[in-house]
């Protein structure tokens, strides 16, 4: 993976975490146990610190950054969807930020909350535990239901498993030029399907 030290500060990645080889880590980035960082993600700790707590994930093409002296935190089991942008914010434990959402500086997303896809969370916004945020600018529309939280937790569990799957079996290879007979279909731990 492209990993860069700046002014003597080197990213830290726990050995049980998986960072895709095309993700970029710069400077003051700390990735704890069983985290997953997807292809094309950029975690730029060249001003403030970025911390991924245990079992959190940042998916493909996300950007994480902050101003000087900021601390962008994705708390334990935080789930950051494809293409999201986090800038100097605090994402609560077991919260989800949807695809292409933006969470700005000093915003605090409460534990077990869901930020809808494409939502824009303004600077200094704060919400309680289990808030559902929708819109641009994002507003709390109601509490997250038990079913919604369970759905989120299943998805996060899939990414915890994916970190391990990638550590143990993902290898770069050339593509085949034809589909092989009896081609296997990949199965996740939670959503098994048959081909």
From TrEMBL:
InterPro entries, alphabetized: Hexapep, Transf_Hexapept/Carb_Anhydrase, Trimer_LpxA-like_sf
Domain of life: Bacteria
SUPFAM superfamilies in alphabetical order: Trimeric LpxA-like enzymes
Gene3D superfamilies attached to this UniProt entry: Hexapeptide repeat proteins (2.160.10.10)
Protein name listed in UniProt: Phenylacetic acid degradation protein PaaY
Organism: Marinomonas vulgaris
């Amino acid at each position: 993976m492209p990993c860069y030290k700046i002014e003597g500060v080197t990213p830290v990645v726990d050995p049980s975490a998986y960072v895709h080889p095309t993700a970029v880590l710069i400077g003051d980035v700390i990735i704890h146990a069983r985290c997953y960082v997807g292809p094309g993600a950029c975690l730029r700790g060249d001003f403030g610190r970025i911390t991924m707590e245990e079992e959190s994930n940042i998916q493909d093409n996300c950007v994480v950054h902050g101003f000087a002296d900021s601390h962008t935190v994705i708390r334990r089991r935080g789930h950051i969807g494809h293409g999201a942008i986090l800038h100097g914010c605090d994402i609560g434990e077991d919260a989800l930020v949807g695809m292409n959402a933006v969470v700005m500086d000093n915003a605090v997303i409460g534990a077990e909350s869901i930020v809808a896809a494409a939502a824009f969370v303004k600077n200094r916004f704060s919400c309680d535990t289990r808030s559902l945020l929708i819109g641009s600018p994002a507003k709390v529309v109601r509490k997250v239901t038990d079913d919604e939280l369970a759905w989120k937790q299943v998805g996060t569990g899939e990414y915890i498993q994916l970190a391990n799957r990638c550590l143990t079996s993902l290898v770069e290879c050339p593509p085949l030029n034809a589909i092989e007979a009896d081609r296997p279909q990949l199965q996740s731990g939670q959503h098994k399907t048959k081909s």
